Amino acid sequence: MEENNKLAIAENTENATATEAASPVPHPIKKLPLTHSLPAKAAVFILTIITAAVACASLLFAMMLLSSNQRFYTVPKDELKRELYETEARDNARNVVSVLTDFNVDNGSDSAYAFAEIRNIASMNVEFSDDLSSKNWSYKSENMQPGDMKYTFMFYDFGEGFIERTSSVVLGAKSSAKVTVVLAKSFTASDRYSMNSMMLDFLYSMRYMIFVIAVVTVIMAIAGFIFLMAASGRHKTSDKPEASFGTKIPFDLLVFGTALLFGCFLLVFRQISHRDYVMLVLAIFYTVALMAAGLGLCMSLATRIKLGGWWKNTVIFIVLRGIWKGIKGLFKLFFKIPLVWRTSIIAAFIFLLDLLFVGFADEAEKVIYIFIRSVILFPAIIYGALMLRKLLNGSKALADGDLEKKVSTKGMFWDFRRAADNLNSINNGMSLAVEERTKSDRMKTELITNVSHDLKTPLTSIINYSDLIMKEPKDSEKIAEYAEVLHRQSEKLKRLIDDLVETSKATTGNLEVVLAPCCVNEMLSQAEGEYEQKMEAAGLTLVSNVPEKTVTIMADGRRLWRVFDNLMGNACKYALTGTRVYISLEEQGNEAVITFKNTSRDALNISAEELIERFVRGDKSRNSTTEGNGLGLAIAKSMTELQNGKLELFIDGDLFKAELRFPLI
C-alpha cells in the first residue's frame, strides 16, 4: 500500500513537471515610460496649467508687493487698510453728493440712504454751502457700530458738477460740500470694503510666503512643460512619434487662432476694473483658457518637429509652393518654345519697355531704367559668352579626336546645359562605338583562330591517317585501326560543321521552331535518365529538385532538348570530379525557372558575357583531351531566345550557374 502511494506521488510529480515544461513561459510585458501614457499626459497637462496660473498670480502679487515701496513690510496692516478704504470712501462720498444734487432725481435723500445702507458705513454726513443748505443730509446705521476709520472730503462745484479739492482756499467755486464718512467697526455687509479687507489680509499674511510659492510653481510649471514636450506625439502603441488629428491642421492656422484668442482677451482685459471682482474671476478663467491653448499649440509644434518637415503643413508653405510651382511651370512652358522664338519674345519685351520709358518717363526715371537694364543685360551677355566658349572648346576637342574630353556643365543652365549634355553624349557614344569596334575586331580574330584550330585538328588527323593507309599493304591489319581513327575524326569534323551551321541559323533566326505546350518536368526527368550513367562515369553526383506539380511552357521539344543536352553535356565535360551537379525547377510569378549548377574543374577567369560567346571555352588552352568546340552555350542561348525564353549565366568563383526562364501557360 505504501509503495502504491509512493508511485502515485511520483506520477503526480512527473505530470506536474511535464505540465510546467509544456506551458509556455510568458514573455515580460514591455513597460512603456510615462511619456507614452495618455492619463499621465492629461494629468500633467492639467497640473501644468494650474501651476502656471498660480505662478502667474504669485508673480503678479509679488510685483504688487514690491511696487508698493515695501509698505507691506514697513507699514502696519491697519494703516494700509485705512489707505485702501480711503479710495472707496471717496468714491462713495462723490456718489452721494451727485445723487443729492441731481435735480432729475425726485427723492435724492432716499436714494442716498439706500446707497449707504447696503455698505459697511456706520454714518455719513453731508453739509452743503449756504446756497444748497436745504440739501444737507445725514445717515446713521442702526445695525453697525462706528469704528476708527473716519474720512472727510471736500467737493466744489465750478459749474460742471462737484469735484474734490484738498486745498483750503478754492476760488471760483459756486457751491461746496463737506462729506464725513465713518466706516463700521466690523464689516458685516458684502461690499468692496469687505472684499478689499479680505484681499489685504491675504496679501499681508502671504507677503513672505508668496515668493516661495512663486519659485516652486514656476519650477513645477517648467518641469511639466518639459515633460509634455517630450511626451507629445508619443503613444502606447509605438515608440516612434505618430501624427494625431491636431497635427493635420495647418500650424499657422493654429497660431492665428491662438493669437486671435489672445487679442480678444486683451480687449476684455482693458474693460476690467481692478475693483470689479466678478470680471477679475472671469479674467482668471480666460487666462487659464489661453494658457491651455498656448500649451496645446506648443505640444502640437513639438510633435510636428519630431515627425519632421513641420513647415510643410502650413498655409504659407502651401501657398508659396503653389506659387513656386506656377512659376516653374511658366518657366518650363517658356523654355519649351524654340530658341529663336524665345529670343524674339525677350527682345520684343525689352523693346516695349524702351518705348514705354522713352515716351512716358521723366529724365530721372529714364536714367534709373537704363541703369537697371544694364545691370541685368551685361552679366547675361557675359554669361552667354563664357558658356559659348565652353561649348566651343568641347566641340573642338571632339573634332580633334579627344574622346576623353568632357564639357563641364557646372554653372550651365537651360539651352547651354542641354547643348553640353548633347556634346558629352556624342563623346560617350563615340567612345562606346570605338570600344565595341575594338571588341568586335578582337572577337573576329579570336573566332578565326578558334575555328581554324578546331577545324585543323580533325582535318590534320584525317590527312595523316589517309596517308598512312595509302602506304600500308592492302592486307595490313593496321588499315582497320587507321580507318577507325579516320571515321572518328570525320564524325568530329561533321559535328563541328553541323554546329557551325546550326549556330548561324539560330543567330540569324532562320532555324525552324514549332512552339507547342511542353511539360518541363518530363523533359528534365528524361535528361536525368539520359545523363545518369555519364555523370557517374565523370565522377559526378546529380541532385534534382523537380516538383511533382506539372509545369507547362510553350516550347519546341526538339530545340528545348538540345538546350538541356548542351547544358548537361557541359557539366559532364567541365565539372570538377567528386562534386554535385544540381538541377532545379520552380515557378516564380508568371515564369518557369530552370537552373543548372555545378563546380568548374578549371578556374573561371572569364566573365559570363564572354563565356557565352561562340568558340569560347572555360579552359582557354582549348585542351584537346576535353571534347567541345565552345559553341554549346551560344547555341543554347540562341535556341532559348527563339522559344521566347531567356538564358543567363552567373559565375561566382568556381561556381557555374545557368538559369533558363520561360513564360508559363
TrEMBL record:
<keyword id="KW-0808">Transferase</keyword>
<feature type="transmembrane region" description="Helical">
    <location>
        <begin position="42"/>
        <end position="66"/>
    </location>
</feature>
<dbReference type="InterPro" id="IPR050398">
    <property type="entry name" value="HssS/ArlS-like"/>
</dbReference>
<feature type="region of interest" description="Disordered">
    <location>
        <begin position="1"/>
        <end position="25"/>
    </location>
</feature>
<keyword id="KW-0418">Kinase</keyword>
<feature type="transmembrane region" description="Helical">
    <location>
        <begin position="208"/>
        <end position="229"/>
    </location>
</feature>
<dbReference type="InterPro" id="IPR003594">
    <property type="entry name" value="HATPase_dom"/>
</dbReference>
<feature type="compositionally biased region" description="Low complexity">
    <location>
        <begin position="10"/>
        <end position="22"/>
    </location>
</feature>
<keyword id="KW-0597">Phosphoprotein</keyword>
<keyword id="KW-0902">Two-component regulatory system</keyword>
<keyword id="KW-0472">Membrane</keyword>
<dbReference type="InterPro" id="IPR036890">
    <property type="entry name" value="HATPase_C_sf"/>
</dbReference>
<dbReference type="GO" id="GO:0005886">
    <property type="term" value="C:plasma membrane"/>
</dbReference>
<feature type="transmembrane region" description="Helical">
    <location>
        <begin position="339"/>
        <end position="361"/>
    </location>
</feature>
<dbReference type="Pfam" id="PF02518">
    <property type="entry name" value="HATPase_c"/>
</dbReference>
<keyword id="KW-0067">ATP-binding</keyword>
<keyword id="KW-1003">Cell membrane</keyword>
<dbReference type="GO" id="GO:0000155">
    <property type="term" value="F:phosphorelay sensor kinase activity"/>
</dbReference>
<feature type="transmembrane region" description="Helical">
    <location>
        <begin position="367"/>
        <end position="388"/>
    </location>
</feature>
<protein>
    <recommendedName>
        <fullName>histidine kinase</fullName>
        <ecNumber>2.7.13.3</ecNumber>
    </recommendedName>
</protein>
<dbReference type="GO" id="GO:0005524">
    <property type="term" value="F:ATP binding"/>
</dbReference>
<feature type="domain" description="Histidine kinase">
    <location>
        <begin position="450"/>
        <end position="665"/>
    </location>
</feature>
<dbReference type="InterPro" id="IPR003661">
    <property type="entry name" value="HisK_dim/P_dom"/>
</dbReference>
<keyword id="KW-0812">Transmembrane</keyword>
<dbReference type="InterPro" id="IPR036097">
    <property type="entry name" value="HisK_dim/P_sf"/>
</dbReference>
<keyword id="KW-0547">Nucleotide-binding</keyword>
<feature type="transmembrane region" description="Helical">
    <location>
        <begin position="281"/>
        <end position="303"/>
    </location>
</feature>
<feature type="transmembrane region" description="Helical">
    <location>
        <begin position="249"/>
        <end position="269"/>
    </location>
</feature>
<dbReference type="InterPro" id="IPR005467">
    <property type="entry name" value="His_kinase_dom"/>
</dbReference>
<keyword id="KW-1133">Transmembrane helix</keyword>
<dbReference type="Pfam" id="PF00512">
    <property type="entry name" value="HisKA"/>
</dbReference>
